[in-house]
Amino acid sequence: MKQKLIAANWKMNKTLDEALKFTKAIKKAKLKNNVIIFPSYPLIPTVQKELQKSQIIVGAQNCHHMECGAYTGEVCAPMLKSLKVPLVLLGHSERRQYFQEDNNLVNLKLHAALRSNLDIMLCVGETLSQREKDETQQIIKDQVSKGLKDVLAKNMGKISIAYEPVWAIGTGKTATPNQAQEVHAYIRHLISELYNNAIAKKIQILYGGSVTPENSSVLFKEKDIDGAFVGGASLDVEKFLKIVNT
Ligand code: PGA
């Protein structure tokens, strides 16, 4: 069976000591699947150093859309590149919700990341009211097509997608395997329309939203679910490892 990709999104959690403790534990563990960790910016160099001999990828949770300039408190893609961070997360629903990031800004950030030759994990997902109004496909279509606007096919190998229904993030309400599979298949279909079948087949699409050791195995059985994007359950190394070794 093809290896899954499991991402830990620590969000604004963990002190340096807590990050080190987690990292030392995961470094020693046997991993059945591929792992990405997204720590917050100041923790990146320490986590990276600790994991340098492992296969685990350390990514950033966000970047600015400009190369440099007077943007106090922000971090740009060239800085991440200079720190040898290979991957950045963009368009997470918390960025969209609390920091007013729309599809246009996500797209600008994505191009900034590509200019610095970073890989990108693009997050998409509908809210509960959008799902209830039967708008899920339209929202996903908008987020995928506008997020990827002007991205050339030759750069699609650098992109992965995390589908995270907003109503499932941090709520304990996971999408059913059927609900998740339906949207994952739709995203793959969109990618084949925007690009081609080969790219659609290859792109990794992770499911996120209250993933736990209890529900990960049923989700992983679905054909179009290539892995998991884990928030809450990624803060505890034991729980996270159970998901990784599902
Ligand atoms: P959660 O978060 O696993 O706590 O629901 C998922 C996410 O980061 O979006």
Overview of the structural elements:
The chain is an alpha/beta fold. It is built from eleven helices and eight strands. The chain has helices at about 15-30, 45-50, 75-80, 95-100, 105-115, 130, 135-145, 175-195, 195-200, 215-220, 235-245, and strands spanning about 5-10, 35-40, 55-60, 85-90, 120-125, 160-165, 205-210, 225-230. An eight-stranded parallel beta sheet has the order 3-2-1-8-7-6-5-4. Helix 1 links the parallel strand 1 and strand 2. Helix 5 runs parallel beside helix 7 and helix 7 (about 135-145) crosses helix 8 (about 175-195). The radius of gyration is 17 Å and the shape is globular. It starts with a strand and ends with a helix. Bound molecules: 2-phosphoglycolic acid. 2-phosphoglycolic acid binds near residues 9, 169, 210, 211 and 231.
Write the layout of secondary structure elements.
Layout: E1 5-9, H1 16-28, E2 34-38, H2 44-50, E3 57-58, H3 77-82, E4 87-90, H4 93-98, H5 103-115, E5 119-124, H6 128-132, H7 136-147, E6 159-163, H8 177-194, H9 197-202, E7 205-208, H10 216-220, E8 227-230, H11 237-244
Parallel strand pairs: 1-2, 1-8, 2-3, 4-5, 5-6, 6-7, 7-8
The chain binds 2-phosphoglycolic acid.
Short summary:
The protein has 246 residues and is an alpha/beta fold.
- Mean pLDDT value: 97
N-to-C CA distance: 12 Å
Which structural category do the helix and sheet elements fall into?
Answer: alpha/beta
* Major β-sheet profile: 8 strands, parallel
The ligands found in this model are: 2-phosphoglycolic acid
Low-pLDDT stretches: none
Supply the number of helical segments. 11
DSSP, total strands: 8
Strand ordering within the main sheet? 3-2-1-8-7-6-5-4
Order of helices and strands: EHEHEHEHHEHHEHHEHEH
Radius of gyration: 17 Å
Shape: globular
Strand percent estimate: 5-15%
